[in-house]
Amino acid sequence: MDDHQIIEDFKNPTTRNKAFNVLLERYQQRIYWHIRKILIDHDDTDDVVQEVFIKVFKNLDGFREASQLYTWIYRIATNEALTFLKKRQRKQAWSIDDVNHDLENKLTSGSYIDGDEIQVKLQKAILTLPEKQKLVFNMKYFDDMKYEEISEIIGTSVGGLKANYHLAVKKIEEYLAQD
């Protein structure tokens, strides 16, 4: 079943649940890992993923198919993850540095990475990036998304995204070269 068929079946009350289950099966894991790279913490990620798919369910009837379904879902996921971080920052009266420090602590104390020391260092390097560079790097490097797709998700020009990605790579290389 392609995305267009999922949307059509979702609009039909008799096939709505089946279509949504297909959508979940297709996109839930990808969305989970996209959000997990932003939030680091598994429990926080689960909460936000749930919110994302509640929003998708509530708004899928109005989806106009001007963009691809997964870019629309990624946009919702990105916005929900960033909103979650901003709420935490306001609630805790933290600076963005405090939020990044908290994420780094979760990174090193949690089960986010089972791999070697270089993976942990890479994730720490990513946490030092400004928000937009972090998003662009994660979507391009880990999700292997095209610049055009990322542009639809975060609303930045392709040229701006390429510049952000290039700067992110340079900063990560510099961070990894330390020690």
Automatic annotation (TrEMBL):
Biological-process GO terms, alphabetical:
DNA-templated transcription initiation
| Alphabetical UniProt keywords | DNA-binding, Sigma factor, Transcription, Transcription regulation
Annotated RNA polymerase sigma factor 70 region 4 type domain ranges read 121-172
One Gene Ontology molecular-function label? sigma factor activity
RNA polymerase sigma-70 region domain: residues covered: 23-90
Family to which the UniProt record says this protein belongs:
Belongs to the sigma-70 factor family. ECF subfamily.
Report the PANTHER family cross-referenced here.
Answer: RNA POLYMERASE ECF-TYPE SIGMA FACTO, RNA POLYMERASE SIGMA FACTOR
Protein's name in the database = RNA polymerase sigma factor
* Species assigned in the record: Roseivirga ehrenbergii (strain DSM 102268 / JCM 13514 / KCTC 12282 / NCIMB 14502 / KMM 6017)
Q: What broad taxonomic lineage does this protein's source fall under?
A: Bacteria, Pseudomonadati, Bacteroidota, Cytophagia, Cytophagales
